[in-house]
Structure formats: structure tokens, C-alpha cells
Amino acid sequence: MRLAFTLFHYFPYGGLERDMLAMARACVARGHAVTIYTQGWTGDKPAEIPVVILPTRALTNHGRAQSFVKQFQARRAQEKLDLVVGFNKMPGLDVYYAADVCFAQKAYEERGWWYRLSGRSRHYLALERAVFAPTSKTQILLISPAQVAPFQRYYDTPDTRLHLLPPGIKRDRVMPPDYPAQRQHWRTAFGLSADTFLMLMVGSDFRRKGLARSIRALANLPEDLRQRAQLWVAGQDDPHVFIKLAQSLGVREQLRILGARDDVAQLLWAADVFLHPAHSEAAGAVLLEAMVAGLPVIATDVCGYAHYVARQQQGRVITAATADHHLADVVADVAASDPQIWRQRARDFIATNDIFSMMDNAVDFIEQLAPMQAG
């Protein structure tokens, strides 16, 4: 098959972008030809997959998105393609990989009426409608059951076009056979003392991931725990407002913004607790990555994968409404627990859950869909 993958912009440390490239490579491994179309690419391009840059010139992100859509549609009319798989919402997709939350829910439930009058809001609502409206033919790959209700509430999307994928996290996050030795090695390498309590966050878009909540929790820990606690954040974003917050709360020296990292597995093995008090999160594969790394996870209930944490009892799920006030108490409770409990539950979780097969299932679906589209 000849497949086109569309993505507005690629950078190597975004979850959506990593999923796109993993799916593209899985398709290529099965003998399909994939071309990636994007408006911009940061980092190394894959040697085995052509990347076509469609340059856009506009003053706003939504203006550039509109330009990209028009250019791609013109290119598609000239090329013979079996399927178009999109990773951002746009018209003309055969398959949409839904890693984003419902924009209409945000526009109508989290913002005022004036927000929906803006050009940005109207444009992104139109792109979302092109994918999810009942009249659309786009097949939708969902990554969390929690995504179904908001999309159907705003668009009446038929059940027959919604297809739920299992998770597909990286196996290199799993606790290695020599986990105690690896943990000690990496804690030493990272300069952590034996009694340091390391709170870890992973992910870009610091505001949405709840970094401010974690900083406040650090400042509000019981004194004996706060004195030996560190909060490290691996991800790419502007840190200045969060550094200023930490300074105002007296915990600047205990906060480290690490930037984008390639040693996330080692950071997970070295940490004591994983924090993800997000304001919104369609799924949150990093929650599962932290779980298989043997960590207790503290996440908000808005995360699509939070139910795995609750079901496995590997940490705590707190409501987004109470996160600002109770996160420190929850962290202190988890810190007082025997860490061997979390590691055994991690092993049980790995043994009893399908959490690695997302890309195989996605490619299976694409292969089944292509003949139907051709027919």
C-alpha cells in the first residue's frame, strides 16, 4: 500500500510525534510505502521514510494549519494513495489517530463564549468537525475509552467509526532483571544521595501536565520529607514561570528542569514517585511507563490511562478539582509506603495487561481498511 501520514509539526520528544513515527515504521516493516507530510521537522529524519515539508507562511498557528491542509489536499489530488492517516485533525483523512482531547469540550466547557468567536477557535472547531461529524467518513483510532463520551456529545460520531486501541508503551521502561543494581547505579550517576526522595515528571507542555501543582506540593510537604525531596522534570517547554513560582515558594534549589531527555528509562528507575497531576490528558502513556518501571504513580482523574493506576492500586488517582490542595498529602502518604509493594504490583501489571501492542493493532486496522476504501 501507498500511505500518506500527515502531521502539522514534528519534534522528537512529543508523545504524538513518537507515536506517528512508530506507526510509520511499523507499516514500513510490513512492506508498505509511507510518506510523511508536515509543515516542519525538528531533529533527524528517518532514513527509511520520505518526509515532505509543505512550507507554510502565516502569522498564527491556525493560519499555518489552514495553509498546510490546502497544500496537502492539492498534493493528494496529484498522487496515487491508498490511505491518508492523520495525526492532527483535518479534512480528507481516511484514518485519524486521536491522541488529542476534544477541542469542542475545551471551547464550550472550559472557556467563555468570547473564546469561541476567535478565529483560532472557529478554525480548530471546523477541523475537528471535519473528522468527527456524522457525515464524515474518517475512521478514528482512539487511545483511551474516556475519549468516546466528549466526542459523541459534541458531534454524534457513530460507534461504527470509533475504534479503541490498546496502549503501546516502550518495553525499555520495564524494570530490568538487575533492577536494584541499576537503580543504585543511576541514582549515583545522577548525584542522588541515599535518602533523597526524587519526585519525577516527564512531558512537555508544563502547564497542561500540572507542573505548578507539583511545585506547590513540593513546597507543602511535611518538613522532614520536604528537606530531602527533589522535583525533576524531563520535557521541553519554557520553564521561566515555573522557576519563578519555585523561587517564591522557597523550593527553587529543589527543582530541576532537565529539558528533553533520551534517558527517561534511567530517570524512572532512579525516582521514588511519578507525578502527573495534569489539567487535561487524552491518555498519558507515561503513566504506564512509570508503572512498569516500578514507580507509584500519582495522577489526576482527567488522564485517560488513570484507570490503570487505580485498578492496579499502583499509586493514587486524585480528582483534578482537589489536586491543588491535596497533592502534597498524597505524596507524603505514598512516600511512607514500602517501595517493594509498587515493584511487585509493576511485575503483576506487566504480566496481566496488553500494554505494548498498540502499533501492531493500528497497522492491522489500516491493512483491513484499505481494501474497503478501494472498493
CATH superfamily of the largest domain: Glycogen Phosphorylase B
Query: What is the highest CATH level, the class of the largest domain?
Result: Alpha Beta
State the helicity in percent bands.
40-55%
Mean pLDDT: 96
Q: Describe the biggest sheet?
A: 7 strands, parallel
Supply the number of helical segments: 16
What separation lies between the terminal Cα atoms?
A: 14 Å
> Strand pairing plus helix content: what structural class?
alpha/beta
CATH architectural arrangement of the largest domain? 3-Layer(aba) Sandwich
Rounded to the nearest angstrom, the radius of gyration is: 21 Å
Shape: globular
Strand order of the largest sheet: 3-2-1-4-5-6-7
Total beta-strand segments: 13
The count of domains is 2
Unreliable sequence segments: none
Strand portion, in percent?
A: 15-25%
| CATH topology title of the largest domain | Rossmann fold
Sequence of secondary-structure elements: EHEEHEEHHEHEHEHHHEHEHEHEHEHHH
Describe the SSE topology.
Elements: E1 2-7, H1 15-29, E2 33-38, E3 51-53, H2 61-78, E4 83-86, E5 95-98, H3 103-110, H4 119-132, E6 139-142, H5 148-155, E7 162-164, H6 179-189, E8 197-202, H7 206-209, H8 211-219, H9 223-227, E9 229-234, H10 240-248, E10 255-259, H11 264-270, E11 273-276, H12 285-292, E12 297-300, H13 306-312, E13 315-318, H14 323-335, H15 339-352, H16 358-374
Parallel strand pairs: 1-2, 1-4, 2-3, 4-5, 5-6, 6-7, 8-9, 8-11, 9-10, 11-12, 12-13
Helix pairs in contact: 1-16, 2-4, 6-11, 8-14
